[in-house]
Write a structure and sequence with these properties.
By secondary structure, the protein is α/β, with parallel strands linked by helices. Helices cover 46% and strands 10% of the residues. The longest helix is centred in the C-terminal third of the chain and has 37 residues.
Length: 648
């Protein structure tokens, strides 16, 4: 390998390779017939060796086998000494290897802008929630007895109104889903030709999940009414166990079921990335788009802006009309603006073997479904787990930020920064079943439950930091509205609501018993019962939780065709302990906010959730394991007539 300048005989790349190289970020490419590698900065990272096989990103010093017909894109982080620099590669070398080396002419390194890893904007959350809001009754009641009582009453009324609005929105969402249950949307497309041109790119990111679990999700893609318009990408990691065997099995099982099927392998240790779903989905999306642009059947849809992108997890079960409705709502919107300025979200119901999970997992799953239908979607706060957008919007936001760990929470904000305006979250009125936290035994169930609560809170805190850093990217009041609703949901509702009620009751009982603060002395002239008014919030919360349980029962039986093994007494017990479960969940979030405030960026990692408990449901205490498989349950949700013993 040697370095030559533009004075040497420079070879122009063929158009096909030039188009391929335009999809790459500071990569080199090798012309097929001359063996020259021309370096130039491009926009999107992508790497491929030959059209028939994926290649891996190559770090410096790595060796990659090449042949004269190969197209190899080699990742480079350093700037080039000159735009006309070439690297000549001798393809007749018997070793057939290309070594990635530094150019002989050293170039000054471009400083990478790195944020402060400890003093970050999420310290505001720590100050407001952990120091100010949650312990407010403990110190305010000691300073002013009446002040502490009034603060408790105001917060109780405020939270009651918030939860009342939440159940109202959730109930209306449920009505919309029942109305759309058996409705066909294909007949409402602008034209049959429009539906035939539309392509749905689906990216499912995974790591160590069991193969049967991934197949359950892919089976729901196979049952889509418009599956012939789906381009499915399974994004796995370099460290995925038995990657080659999993890839071969997936391609064998689902070959020919979709418009196209790709299995990608995200490389480990790429500078600037955090291992997790963000970086994995980012890599898979870029590879998929490059493959689509080379495809004769899909390149036209890409050029015409007729591609939707859906990101999902390996434990999402899609209803059969999900993409049919997505195509309808996409096509009915204005092509020059509206359809490229929204992110679609379906309600997530965590009833994936939820009846086999412990009480704290089931209660959390039911309440998460309530909050999604009642707050996250109606208030345009953020997407969760699986969501859809146009490919134009994905590219406008430079795909997915690989330096963050939670691709769903940051998605809305990332698109806002790209468009400099508020992103709306339209409802897809078909619920997606998602897996709750799970484990193979009780200890792992507790660990996974707390681990996910901590991870989501740290992710939300990092998104708040990102929001503050990018504050100037928003126009008008869009940033203010987003910041207020996001902070209100994650800080006051999810973290602070239960903990504030708890500290309020502790302060009231403790100070009253010690004779430090007796609110009845001040309230007696009005009514001796007013001092117990904050307890009304606890009673009202039980009404809210009861309605959440009712909505869950209606959805599982009426929308999902599921028959969960939950008796009346068990339901009552779960409802009775719901406030305690939410209190424990809030305590984990409180700890997470304190942790990210004290340790900074160090804790921002995305540890993959364990899914073995979903692939092989554990036996409930005192009873044998259910003989019904996860695959049967998922097929029963999709098409009841297919859920026959021995079908799969």
């Amino acid at each position: 390998m040697c370095i030559s300048k533009s004075g040497d005989a420079a070879v122009q790349p063929s158009p096909s390779i030039s188009e391929l190289a335009k999809q790459s970020l500071y990569f080199a490419y090798i012309t097929q017939d001359h063996g020259h590698a021309h370096h130039a900065p491009f926009s999107l990272p992508f790497l491929r060796a030959k059209a028939k096989d994926e290649a891996r990103l190559l770090p410096k010093g790595h060796h990659a086998e090449i042949e004269p017909d190969d197209v190899l894109l080699v990742k480079r982080k350093e700037p080039l000494p000159a735009p006309d620099t070439f690297i000549t590669v001798d393809l007749q070398n018997p070793a057939k290897t290309l070594e990635v080396v530094q150019p002989e002419v050293a170039a000054p390194e471009v400083p990478v802008k790195a944020g402060n890893r400890r003093f970050r904007w999420n310290l505001l959350w720590f100050a407001v929630f952990c120091v100010g809001f949650v312990p407010l009754p403990l110190w305010l009641s000691a300073v002013s007895c009446v002040g502490g009582y009034l603060a408790s009453c105001i917060v109780t009324v405020w939270m009651s109104v918030v939860m009342l609005v939440c159940v109202g929105n959730a109930s209306w969402t449920m009505v919309r889903m029942f109305r759309a249950k058996n409705k066909s949307w294909l007949e409402h497309y602008p034209s049959p030709e429009a539906g035939q041109q539309l392509v749905h790119l689906v990216i499912m990111a995974g790591y160590k999940e069991p193969l049967p679990l991934m197949c359950n999700t892919l089976d729901t893609f196979r049952q889509q009414t418009v599956r012939e318009r789906l381009c499915v990408v399974v994004g796995l990691e370099e460290k995925t166990p038995e990657f080659a065997a999993k890839k071969a099995e997936l391609l064998k099982r689902y070959s020919g079921d979709f418009l196209d099927l790709l299995v990608t392998q995200h490389p480990f240790g790429v500078p600037g990335e955090i291992p997790g779903k963000c970086s994995n989905s980012n890599y898979a999306a870029r590879q998929a788009v490059a493959a689509m642009q080379r495809s004769g059947t899909m390149s036209g849809a890409v050029d015409a802006g007729l591609v939707t992108v859906t990101l999902c997890d390996t434990d999402n079960l899609f209803p059969p009309r999900y993409f049919e409705y997505l195509g309808y709502d996409f096509l009915r919107r204005q092509p020059d603006a509206d359809r490229h300025e929204v992110v679609w979200q379906a309600p997530l119901l965590y009833n994936y073997d939820l009846d086999k999970r412990p009480f704290f997992v089931r209660v959390t799953g039911i309440l998460r479904g309530l909050f999604m239908m009642g707050m996250l979607i109606p208030q345009d706060i953020n997407t969760m787990s699986c969501f859809s957008m146009s490919l134009n919007l994905l590219i406008a936001g430079d795909y997915i930020h690989p330096g963050y760990q939670m691709d769903d929470i940051i998605c809305t904000l990332h698109r806002m920064i790209a468009l400099h305006k508020r992103i709306r979250i339209p409802l897809i009125p078909y619920p997606v079943v998602s897996g709750p936290t799970s484990g193979v035994d009780l200890r792992q169930e507790v660990t996974e439950w707390a681990r996910q609560a901590r991870r989501w809170t740290i992710g939300a805190a990092e998104v708040f930091h990102y929001f503050c850093v990018k504050w100037r990217s928003f126009d008008g009041w869009s940033g203010v509205r987003y910041g207020v609703t996001f902070t209100h949901y994650y800080g006051f509702v999810i973290c602070g609501m239960s903990l504030f009620s708890f500290t309020s009751l502790v302060a009231s009982a403790g100070y009253h018993g010690a004779g430090v603060c007796d609110a009845s002395v001040y309230l007696a002239p009005l009514s001796p019962y007013l001092m117990y008014a904050p307890l009304g919030g606890v009673a009202f919360s039980y009404v809210i939780y009861l309605w959440a349980f009712i909505l869950d029962a209606v959805a599982t039986r009426g929308l999902l065709n599921l028959r969960e093994d939950i008796g009346f007494l068990r339901n009552v017990l779960h409802w009775a302990v719901a406030p305690l479960v939410l209190l424990a969940y809030s305590a984990v979030e409180y700890y997470a906010i304190c942790e990210v405030a004290l340790r900074g960026k160090e804790v921002c990692k995305h540890g993959a959730s364990k899914k073995d408990g979903l692939a092989t449901p554990p036996s409930s205490a005192g009873s044998p394991a259910s003989s019904t498989s996860v695959s049967t349950i998922s097929l029963d949700m999709i098409h009841p007539q297919l859920a026959k013993p021995g079908k799969y």
